[in-house]
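Hi there. Long-time user, first ticket. I'm pasting a complex I've been working with (about 1142 residues overall). I'd like to know whether the download I got is complete or cut off, because the file seemed smaller than I expected. Thanks.
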Amino acid sequence: MAQEAHGAIYDLLAVRGVSRRDFMKYCGYVAATLGLSEAAAPQIAAAVEKGAKLKPALWLNGGSCTGCTESMAQVDTPDVATIVLELLSLNYFETIMAAAGEQAEKNIADTIAAGNYLLIYEGAVMMGEDGNTLLVNGHKGKDILEEAAAGAQAILAVGACAVDGGWIYAHPNPAGGIGVQSFLDSVKVATPVVNLPCCPTSPEWVVAMVVQWLLVAGDDPAVFLEKTALLEKKYHDNYRDADVSLLYPEYIVGSTIHDNCPRRGHFENGEFVTEFGSEEEAKGYCLYKVGCKGPQTYTQCPVTRWNRSVSWCVNSGAPCIGCGGLNWVDNNAPFFKRLSSIQMGGSLGNVQPGSVGAVVGGVAAAALVAHGLGMKAAGRIGDGPPIEEMKAYDRKRMAKGGDK
Amino acid sequence: MSSQAHYREAHPLVFVITHWINLICMIMLAFSGFYIHYPFFDGFMGVARGMHFVAMFVILINLTFRVIAAFFVKTATDLGSREVDTDIKNWLPQEKNKHQFFETVKYYLFLRKEGVISAKYGSLQKISYLATVPLTYLMAYTGFALYGPTADWGFFMWGTELVGGPMNMRIIHYFMMWVFILFTMVHAYLANIYNFAPSKIIFLWKETEH
Amino acid sequence: MARTVIDPVTRIEGHLRVEVEVKDGKVVDAWSSGTLYRGMETVLLDRSPEDAFYVTQRICGVCPISHSHASAQATENALGITIPEGGRLVRNLLEAAQFLHSHILWFYQLTALDYVSPINALNADIADTYALAQAAGTRVADFGAVANRLKAFAENGQMSIFSNHYWDHPGYALPPELDLIATTHYLEALEVQAVANEIVAIIAGKFSHPMTSVPGGTAFVPTADKLDDILFRFLKVKEFVDTALIPDTLAIAPFILDATTYGGGCGNFISWGVFEKSDLVPENRYMPRGFAQGLKAEGISPDDVTEDVKHSWYSSGTGLNPSKSETQVKYEEYSTEGKYSYGKAVRAKGLPAESGPLSRMIVTYLAEAAGTDVTGGAADVRTPKMLIDSTLEALGVAGKPEVLVSLLGRVAARNLEAAYVADLALVWVNELVAALAGGEAKFWQAAEKDTGAGVGAWEAPRGSVAHWIDIKSGKIAHYGIVAPTTWDIAPRDDNDVPGPMEQALIGAPIADPERPLEALRIAHSFDP
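Hi, the file is complete. Here it is re-exported in full:
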């Protein structure tokens, strides 16, 4: 076949009506996504070309809402059709695969048996009720993950739930949702996990990591880890009571939303939206006062943006709710307040730090006034403390050899 | 009942100045901090942040200077006395302060009649003044952990991860401000509860004779 | 008797198990089971109402907007907030965009593969495909290019998402040319559903999980530049609905006419009503609130809802209204005789009730027949009655709306609803333009109190959604949710009466119990 002479991928693409020019354009896009210079495009083209055989992949849904899958369907370039027809062989992808039931399950088994695959995991790992809070054909969701993860070359944990349990992990975590890395730590599976934040995650980030794998890994996880700029973040998983260390792509979590926010100028100017849907919002003022969590949320949202770069949360007039952070609900709720509430438990429940501060300050002020009145009543005010008596007392104590 | 004189030896001029700098910086930090926490009027955020950073650097330098100076500057060893010794000796709790601790607490709780004091500061005073030093540095640490350009330095990242993320760090930063506010309230109250002689000396460097 | 299990039911949101008992080629009993528990109602306790707005939408990544609207309405109802006119229009547009996205995605990506074989499309004659497309009045594209793309894909030998499915099942009965047309539109639909979601992104920041329809109205302020972005995207989506979704439905229907004879289900239909008119009265929404038994209209109130847990993995109280619901999870061995689902058996007036487009279209159809206005006075809107009547006529069953109560009826109702919603969306864009031109458009209203109890009952593309909230001093004291799918995949209730999907499965033919395509079609028709 002519494919031998020209490079398989060009022929594959040509057959599909994609010109070489389009393909280079796509590679340029990939380069940009990866933060490489466009000059790297020919190199990328060569690398993708080598991978004309589609990379097998499994996309598993744990305790999920399918939102990250939906998000994937909103990907810009390459589009979904290209991904499933020409980039990955997604042998199992519950939401869009044709097969169901045992035929679908067989796809997992076949893929694991053949090996050499990537695993993409969406949703939390469900540990509650002894792992029975998620069942697929009688198997516990966590067991399916464990088996698939052990055989995978690398794992992408997509979305907040897969990262650390997401909202499911929020207090009191009745269903026992935890993140993929934390779970794999507990079952001692060492397959590398790359975490992609946000609820849902951005499809552009998923594609960027998949292409990154195809480009640099050479099917070797160690090479992938070495050549991908990753950032480590640690947190304490309260459900397992264990410290967990997560790997993120550095370019995604390297700076805060606040630092890249197009409304940052208004922040510095002190121009704020105080009421939703207001005149100030029409002017694009800063949402800081209505609780924007951009200042402590480390994601690339304002740069990548959402839904094929059409918009993103702050651009539509809503404060960032910090879904890209760890334990994002507990750490950011109430979402319209500047600081998150503190879980005091019991009858106190959730308390705002501001209320605590005001109460403590008020009580202290009242106590001082009361104390002052006491001092006055005791006749201590006026000339100062009875210094000579104090000294006399001290001398007596010191003469006795001080305190014992 | 007698009282004591307030002599300049208690607070040499250099410490009057550092105290002034502390006071001004603290006010600026608290005000700009509250503003940054929740902008209660428009048009001031850039200034507030600038103020917050400048005041923070000034207070850190001032504090460091004050601590070093404590080893060189001599201050009064006792209330109402012109006898001086190295400041740090008067600042750090001494042997004779030990027995005073609970007695002082009792005194302030009206459980004993006469006060106890044998050095320039009482034992509670010494402990709280001493605590302001690490507290201020810690406050700066939490601030740097929140500040964009420094937040991702390993040294600060370590703390952020320890407390469970930037939001918790922000809350700690916020609560610590209340600690300073409480300190200031109690400090001002106890210093001036008998009369304003202590303020006259620390702010105006004016002696009071008795 | 053989038991056939489909687990996982794929091409849905979430985790669903369907088990059927087949005798002589027919389903004689069926069980539908939700196999995931996440505990949202418990997580929400003691948080703020806006937290419920943001968290509850995460029940479902396919219909998050409807959950967020139900949650916002619950809070507004509890705290006595009346949303301003601008907020109403923006919410209608946002909801409409999600409906269009969802219906298009459901038909092409989720359910079409039960009828359409992309593998068989490889046998299509390209010239005949063009001729068929023209005859069917459906959208013409570069069918040759698509065929080549499929061929290259198939020759590569890796079947990706099409792996290991029973494409040789006799149920795949479409001519290859129609398979090719539908597959082409499958690929185009991926693009169009994303366009619909761009509207969501403009109004609400992103899809999934929207940001702006907060309690009180909307945080989004439509400016002129954003309005034209919204309008022209709606036009683009509407064009696809008119030139592909509807004609494709009509082109495929003749090949599956037997699907009008089964899959109907319980015959009780619930709709909370969706798309608000200016008066904000649920019974007067564009698609009004109502209940139907045997195609006879009745009223319905959120107070009529109860949840039974005899067959569900909960140890808490049964037969409670969701305003008082308890959610104490307790898993035990799966048993179709005992407990077999995390879904509660939700009942309306004690009856199992189907929710979703078929319910809405029937309730609206009946209301319209009784003289209710469903266009808000706008011309150029194809109403549910017009759409249903003309479709019945096209299929040769004019004047027989009872045919709708079937598998095919459920499929068709969803697509016809898309046409109605696409027309309405343009009306609302124009109303919004007029409101903005008039100056004083208001979008958000603050609450004046912080305590109260309320309910937000609304419709998601897939069915009826209601949230019950009890707010004490600005914090949530109780939260109850009945999600759309909860209605349809409800297990048996305390009286062992099967749920709507279970009833729809019972009586369905199964040609090959090893490959239960018909059961899959019925499950998918609910968009669970």
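A couple of notes from our side: The first strand of chain C starts at residue 2 and ends at 6. The two ends of chain C are 27 Å apart (CA to CA).
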